[in-house]
Design goal:
InterPro entries: 2Fe-2S_ferredoxin-like_sf (IPR036010), 2Fe-2S_ferredoxin-type (IPR001041), Beta-grasp_dom_sf (IPR012675). With about 110 residues, this protein is an alpha+beta fold. It has one domain: Beta-grasp domain (Ubiquitin-like (UB roll)). The chain has two helices and five strands; from the N terminus they run ββαβαββ. The protein has a five-stranded mixed β-sheet. A hairpin with a 2-residue loop joins β1 and β2.
Length: about 110
């Protein structure tokens, strides 16, 4: 049996902890658990977890250090990290962000 780690997901006012197998991508684990990481349009047209479309963003409250090139841009411009580029290896807490169009937040909102 593979080792699992707890991932706490904050969705609005709700907090849910799911057990995720080490080595899975956060995006896949969230989708399998029924959480929506995409907006209304991008859930139908996205890159499938290849790190290209930028629409599966989540805010990481605690967890792995940024390692993907997108993370540097996210930190610089204040937008969420791509869940498809985060490998679950240790306990973490993430917050789902509301997406209005494609993967975008409303102007002036940090999530």
């Amino acid at each position: 049996m593979s080792e699992t780690v707890p991932v706490t997901v904050v969705d609005g006012e709700e907090r849910t902890t799911i057990d995720v197998a080490c080595g899975r991508t956060l995006r896949d684990a969230l989708l399998d658990a029924g959480f929506e990481v995409y907006g209304s349009v991008s859930k139908h047209g996205n890159c499938g977890g290849r790190g290209l479309c930028g629409t599966c963003g989540v805010e990481v409250a605690s967890g792995p250090e940024p390692t993907h090139w997108h993370d540097a841009a996210a930190a610089r411009y204040g937008y969420p990290r791509l869940s498809c580029r985060i490998t679950v290896a240790a306990p973490m807490t993430v917050r789902l962000v509301e997406k209005v169009m494609w993967g975008q937040l409303l102007p002036g909102e940090s999530g």
